[in-house]
Amino acid sequence: MKDTIIEFAALVWAFLMAGVMIIFGVVLFATPVALFIWVVYLILKALGVFA
Fold first, then answer.
1. Which residues, other chains included, contact 41 with Cβ-Cβ below 8 Å and sequence gap of 6+?
2. Is the Cβ–Cβ distance between 50 and 44 less than 8 Å?
């Protein structure tokens, strides 16, 4: 019984860590993209494209 509980806890922990890694990867990927879009928006705004 104890082995089953430990196995289940390890499985839950593995899924939790996988989720954290995926979120971390998405944030690391999305941050430069968002900054690039923001900079492009600021440049276009400075050029008067957006009134």
1. 50
2. yes
